[in-house]
Hints:
Elements: E1 6-11, H1 16-19, E2 27-31, E3 34-35, H2 39-46, E4 51-57, E5 63-69, E6 77-79, E7 82-83, H3 114-120, H4 131-139, E8 145-148, H5 154-161, H6 169-178, E9 183-189, H7 196-207, E10 217-224, H8 242-262, E11 269-271, H9 273-279, H10 302-315, E12 326-331, H11 336-350, E13 353-358, H12 376-389, E14 399-402, E15 417-418, H13 436-443, E16 447-449, H14 454-465, H15 474-477
Parallel strand pairs: 7-15, 8-9, 9-10, 10-11, 12-13, 12-14, 14-16
Antiparallel strand pairs: 1-2, 1-6, 2-3, 2-4, 4-5
Helix pairs in contact: 8-9, 10-11, 12-13
Amino acid sequence: xxxxxxxxxxxxxxxxxxxxxxxxxxxxxxxxxxxxxxxxxxxxxxxxxxxxxxxxxxxxxxxxxxxxxxxxxxxxxxxxxxxxxxxxxxxxxxxxxxxxxxxxxxxxxxxxxxxxxxxxxxxxxxxxxxxxxxxxxxxxxxxxxxxxxxxxxxxxxxxxxxxxxxxxxxxxxxxxxxxxxxxxxxxxxxxxxxxxxxxxxxxxxxxxxxxxxxxxxxxxxxxxxxxxxxxxxxxxxxxxxxxxxxxxxxxxxxxxxxxxxxxxxxxxxxxxxxxxxxxxxxxxxxxxxxxxxxxxxxxxxxxxxxxxxxxxxxxxxxxxxxxxxxxxxxxxxxxxxxxxxxxxxxxxxxxxxxxxxxxxxxxxxxxxxxxxxxxxxxxxxxxxxxxxxxxxxxxxxxxxxxxxxxxxxxxxxxxxxxxxxxxxxxxxxxxxxxxxxxxxxxxxxxxxxxxxxxxxxxxxxxxxxxxxxxxxxxxxxxxxxxxxxxxxxxxx
Length: 492
Ligand code: SF4
């Protein structure tokens, strides 16, 4: 990490920091003589001992020392956001490289940051991590970490990550494991690139690194490659079509159960939901997924969890809140059949009139079927098409629902991490900068985000009944928990 020193932006009144004369604007340079790299590193250093020697710099450039007896606790400072480490790799299926032109700048920035991997489960190829950074992970116990392995066979890995120096991912993994770091791994699978014998070797190599007592490979997920219609001047990568997905599901579903049995019943090999949705088959039952829903953020088990929650919700008295509601639910083509089934079940149970429409993704290309990449214009088009099909009346539905994942607030930068010069989009904005209030105004009916489940959705519809989704009341009114659903294959 090049950054040295972290700026103090606030000091808690009456805190140890205030007593020590620390002021907003100072820069925390060293703790125990060691350079402070970022917020995570500050947490590690300040909690390491019961007291701490600090070196700080005033805005005028002068430095001063402070000594605090902090009992291994924080000293009462808020530190400036850290900058995300930007990826300089060249993976053949990197989603950012296949983005259409014309979106806002932040969508074209790639993060490859071990801190985000530890804090938020973002996957890193470790290609930007030198040995010093791997040692930092070990020293600060940044465990578990999430690693995109893709292939352990060196030549295949070089082909996938597009970097001739990054064939030996096992050396890096072994350095982490030897240091006691646990690792969740994934392979984004593309036909002819890293399937077949290469995938089998990846599986064998990672399974051999599942250990007890020291650092262990905790899981391996496989995710089908995601390609857009915007791959000009990029290497040829074959997409996962329904036939390939069906074969994969047939071949590997029994293996998931076999590996789970050998892992004390806990699933270790994980198949992303998209294998099943692309194959057009039902996702497996609850026992197919890890007890802790490992790699849910990576699109493993989201559909099953939604189904489980829906089943319970539909039996609950709260479900009657949907009674009589005429609602159009817009979603991506891959999730539409599942959602339509749940909507029909709910309609039968409580007398609601929910309908589902699969919105085509004209922005990224119709091969992109996940809800999280639908743009505002795509959703607008789908809603208008539905209205026309229903006779064109202005009161054709009581409300329109858009996927919360299409309103994600971030693509990489987070509350704690930022990219210099990049504006993170505001709540309620689609990828194409179209906003939810704009969509509602265009459609002329209340338009709300789905949330993560039916319970959230009902909250949103009730909030819309109260007018909470107009103007600035938006942010306070909806469940942000449903906003950061992952993009599955689109987050390699
Ligand atoms: S897929 Fe990830 S690691 Fe690879 S180039 Fe894109 S951002 Fe970087």
